[in-house]
Predict the structure.
Amino acid sequence: MAQSTEKLVIIGSGPAGYTAGIYAARAALNPLLFAGTIPFTPGGQLMITTEVENFPGFPKGVTGPELMELFKAQAERFGTRVVEESAIEVDLKSRPFRVKADSQEVLAESIIIATGASAMWSGAKGEEAYKNRGVSACATCDGFFFKNLDVLVVGGGDTAMEEATYLTKHARKVTIVHRRDALRASKIMQDKAKKNPKIAFVWNSVVEEVLGDGKKMNSARLKNVLNGEVQQVEAQGLFVAIGHKPNTELFAGKIDLDAKGYVKTTPGTTRTSVPGVFAAGDVQDPLYRQAVTAAGSGCQAAIEVERFLEH
Ligand code: NDP
């Protein structure tokens, strides 16, 4: 049987992917959207967030999962076909492109890459072994389990401040471990963390090793990067908040990526180095990384696909 060719395949189901779906479906492109399966977090990073207070149109705030349900419902309302599978292989050498997913292979006249980004890990000894046994990258997902316990947060950016502040709702004490003596976080977030009596800072330090009894972590060895001094601190939790890496393994060697692995797009557009392949959201944005900017670029990508297919 001849394989049908999709006009548009969208890979990814965060704000960028679903917004591209809304616009492309309304433009009669009948998009097929691969939403991903765990560990790709269908719905994207907002699925592991609680309250979203800065998405316009929600003056009272909305939870991340609720917001993504609404995105999905709106994309489906206009006919986006959402498939709960991950794209596992792509061939972008010639059009139509080939996209292989968990249980099917499709041909596509155009593709929008919206695979987002994932949390990075510190690589400390013991970190991997104690993941989900104290070590986490998501305070809002796991913070609840640390009621009246001591936890560490690694990082000096907005995420670290946000996670630390959130964790004070549950934990007894939160210690932020940062590799320098100045925070990268915005002033408002820094002030909030510094004013919180439950938050302490360990400067110029990194986590060298996560220790525990084999079942759960109970302490960590922190190394001062200036004088090499090592101290062991008791902590039942370690939250790593040191940034994200784009989910572009699938596209390496197939389209141009920058030095950090983000998809390169022509400035002001979502065009990638391969005509007919567009990229939207965090996968091509190391700078803003907001739900609303991701949604905006998803809209842009759909409009660009429409124009590309017309010509
Ligand atoms: P950032 O890249 O801003 O910060 C990462 C932090 O981790 C830095 O302080 C960095 O140190 C540190 N770091 C990086 N690698 C390591 C390592 N291997 N070991 C130890 N420390 C390390 O990432 P964020 O996730 O914090 O923020 C990303 C973007 O999202 C930012 O633009 C931020 O403003 C935005 N954001 C906004 C929020 C909001 O407005 N509500 C909430 C969360 C994020 P160093 O400073 O030395 O480089």
Helices lie at 15-26, 64-77, 139-142, 158-167, 187-195, 291-310. Residues 16 and 298 are 4 Å apart (CA to CA).
